[in-house]
């Protein structure tokens, strides 16, 4: 969905929940229902992994984006394809934070929890603040489902939920009743209860409905009865909210008319933005895009998306394993394509030898690592930032590779373009480090004008580039550009440009196999110098008041860090903020910036990997603040930690 807005960015985030009230006349005979106007809301849908919570959240998000709110999402689902029904490991949730102003995170705690069964309630109630709304599917609160998750008595009846505003709704029964006319089997009808819940929430928060109805009819176009059943359940949920006395209040969150610069926007996830960025890079470079990949969570969506765009010259190869995937991508790069391979941390481990080969061959190659919890198989559906040192050093020998990291889901588009620029300009493999939080999360993205995209055009070698002492013109594959130290890129089959290829050390210039110690030393230092001299922008610091404490971040910690900094400044504290996109090489002014502050705090979703690099490189006593629980930081959590650093 796209929408157009014209405004200036707001400076607040995670604002205090404010509300205004206005009555609204409803259907004749029902009376008047109150409308409360809020500046932001955080909703979490939670249920069994088969209850369609991700679809429900996606649809609510799409309608919210089309309405013009700023938003941020946090899908959270089990690693198992189908965990045991009704158990805590099988709980799937989707959290959406939407507002009438600029926001940066999915929110620390939900104002509304929709719990489809006892497991969903038990798994999420600890995150819900007092006074929040609970919408609970009472049909599932029977003895056996409650016993599965340790409820001896019903929490709906024993007083344990007195601190919350509980709305008991028999979602299953109401859905089956609404779908009687379709003659569906009970189990088939029950599956639409997520659409009933979506309709109810859409009424509560005045979300548009046309897009969801069109989506359902398109999704189930080959099963029109199922399509209409889902639409009917969705409408029944809306009507239930409109007519029931239990929901006496509905809420409005105005469009974020002051949050964005003028432009056309759409809701986008990190993996989708990254996919579009790769396609844009190939078009700007005038090169076909080749993806060699093996499916792995949470990177598989990129393979799925790129496979849909053959009309843009995209070729996708689902390989038999990780090694074959990157081997094919490197071969495509040798053949003149923009070669890409996508994976997560375990796949990077398998690809490491071929990445080293790409360093030796000095060919452009993009290695997209959507980080997840490790080690080994680890936490496939949870987020982490623990592959930084692997990207920096996870190869044998001296094999330097540039590393960049996007900071938000929408920023994945620009990060892909930047990774391609570096790879093509300097003839090198490049790591792009996203993570599960960015990959699956979504936010509004301003669709760029084509004129704003960088020119990535590549000039291939077409003629000999060296003259021997006897006057013979030859092609030297390792004769370098004096500014970038990049070697020429010759497409195989170009007459007169035949050259050797392989992983054994090259002789400078000729590319012939060389075991000469002095040549090896020279080539190692030259490859390192090429990476060290990559042109990256200086690091910008947000420091309006001359603080003595700097918080330095990278990757997906941008949102929580920025939200925490805003909270501290609103409370009168002074703190500076900087965020790294380029992690190898670092911006040239990073050392000077670090030495400008008395304290440097580096929050990371690992045990201090960037902090280790910063301490070693700049001899700065950087303080780590670390979390490795598979979830992103919360703004309040970071604000508390940064406040302690300021007061120390």
How would you describe what is shown here?
The chain is an alpha/beta fold and 648 residues long. Helix content is 34%, strand content 21%. The strands form six sheets. It has a seven-stranded mixed β-sheet with strand order 13-12-14-15-17-16-24, sandwiched between helices. Strand 16 (403-404), helix 14 and strand 17 form a beta-alpha-beta unit. Helix 1 (53-67) packs parallel to helix 6 (193-204), helix 9 packs across helix 10 and helix 11 packs parallel to helix 12. The chain is globular, with a radius of gyration of 27 Å. Mean pLDDT is 94; it is low at 1-30.
Name the descriptors.
34% helix
Q: Outline of this structure?
A:
The protein is an alpha/beta fold and 648 residues long. A 7-stranded mixed sheet has the order 13-12-14-15-17-16-24, with helices on both faces.
Q: Structural class of the helices, strands and pairings?
A: alpha/beta
Low-confidence stretches: 1-30
Q: Please work out how many helical segments DSSP would assign.
A: 20
Overall shape: globular
- State the share of residues found in helices, binned by percent: 25-40%
Average pLDDT confidence is 94
Distance between the termini: 47 Å
Radius of gyration: 27 Å
% residues in beta strands: 15-25%
Q: Count the E strands.
A: 26
Kindly report the spatial arrangement of strands forming the biggest sheet.
13-12-14-15-17-16-24
Largest sheet: 7 strands, mixed
């Amino acid at each position: 969905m796209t929408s157009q807005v014209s405004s200036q960015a707001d400076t607040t985030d995670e604002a205090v929940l404010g509300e205004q009230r206005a009555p609204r006349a409803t259907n004749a005979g029902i009376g008047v229902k109150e409308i409360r106007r809020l500046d932001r809301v955080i909703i979490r849908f939670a249920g069994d992994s088969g209850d369609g919570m991700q679809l429900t959240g996606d649809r609510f998000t799409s309608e919210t984006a089309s309405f013009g709110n700023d938003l941020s999402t946090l899908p959270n689902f089990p690693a198992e394809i189908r965990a045991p029904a009704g158990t805590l490991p099988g709980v799937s949730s989707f959290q959406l934070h939407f507002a009438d102003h600029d926001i940066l995170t999915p929110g620390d705690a939900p104002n509304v929890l929709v719990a489809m069964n006892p497991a969903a309630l038990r798994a999420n109630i600890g995150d819900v603040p007092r006074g929040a709304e609970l919408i609970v599917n009472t049909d599932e609160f029977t003895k056996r489902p409650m016993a599965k998750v340790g409820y001896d008595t019903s929490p709906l009846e024993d007083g344990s939920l007195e601190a919350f505003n509980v709305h008991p709704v028999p979602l299953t029964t109401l859905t089956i009743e609404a779908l009687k006319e379709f003659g569906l089997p009970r189990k088939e009808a029950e599956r639409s209860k997520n659409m009933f819940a979506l309709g109810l929430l859409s009424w509560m928060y005045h979300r548009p409905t046309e897009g969801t109805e069109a989506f359902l009819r398109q999704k189930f176009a080959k099963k029109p009865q199922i399509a209409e059943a889902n639409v009917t359940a969705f409408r029944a949920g809306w009507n239930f909210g409109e007519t029931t006395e239990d929901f006496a209040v509905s809420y409005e969150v105005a469009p974020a008319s002051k949050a964005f610069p003028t432009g056309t926007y759409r809701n986008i996830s990190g993996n989708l933005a990254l996919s579009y960025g790769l396609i844009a890079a190939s078009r700007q470079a005038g090169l076909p895009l080749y993806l060699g990949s093996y499916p792995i969570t949470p990177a598989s969506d990129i393979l799925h998306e790129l496979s849909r765009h053959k009309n843009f010259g995209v070729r996708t190869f689902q390989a038999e394993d990780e090694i074959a995937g990157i081997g094919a991508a490197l071969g495509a790069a040798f053949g003149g394509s923009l070669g890409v391979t996508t994976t997560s941390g375990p796949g990077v481990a398998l690809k490491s030898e071929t990445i080293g080969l790409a360093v030796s061959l000095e060919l452009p190659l993009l290695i997209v690592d959507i980080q997840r919890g490790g080690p080994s198989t680890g936490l496939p559906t949870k987020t982490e930032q623990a592959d930084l040192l692997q990207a920096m050093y996870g190869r044998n020998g001296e094999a330097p590779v540039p590393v960049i990291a996007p900071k938000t889901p929408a920023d994945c588009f620009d990060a892909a373009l930047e990774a391609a620029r570096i790879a093509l300009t300097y003839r090198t493999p490049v790591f792009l480090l996203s993570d599960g939080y960015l990959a699956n999360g979504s936010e509004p993205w301003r669709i760029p004008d084509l004129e704003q995209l960088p020119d990535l055009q590549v000039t291939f070698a077409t003629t000999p580039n060296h003259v021997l002492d006897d006057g013979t013109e030859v092609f030297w594959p390792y004769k370098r550009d004096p500014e970038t130290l990049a070697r020429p890129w010759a497409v195989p089959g170009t007459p007169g440009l035949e050259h050797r290829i392989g992983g054994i050390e090259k002789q400078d210039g000729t590319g012939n196999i060389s075991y000469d110690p002095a040549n090896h030393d020279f080539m190692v230092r030259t490859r390192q110098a090429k990476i060290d001299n990559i042109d990256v922008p200086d690091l910008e610091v947000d420091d309006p008041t001359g603080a003595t404490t700097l918080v330095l971040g990278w990757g997906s910690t941008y949102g929580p860090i920025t939200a925490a900094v805003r909270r501290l400044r609103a409370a009168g504290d002074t703190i500076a903020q900087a965020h790294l996109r380029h992690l190898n090489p670092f911006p040239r002014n990073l050392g000077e910036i670090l030495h400008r502050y008395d304290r440097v705090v580096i929050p990371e979703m690992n045990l201090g990997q960037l902090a280790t690099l910063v301490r070693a490189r700049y001899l700065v006593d950087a303080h780590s603040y670390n979390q490795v629980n598979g979830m992103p930081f919360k703004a309040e959590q970071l604000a508390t930690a940064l406040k302690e650093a300021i007061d120390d």
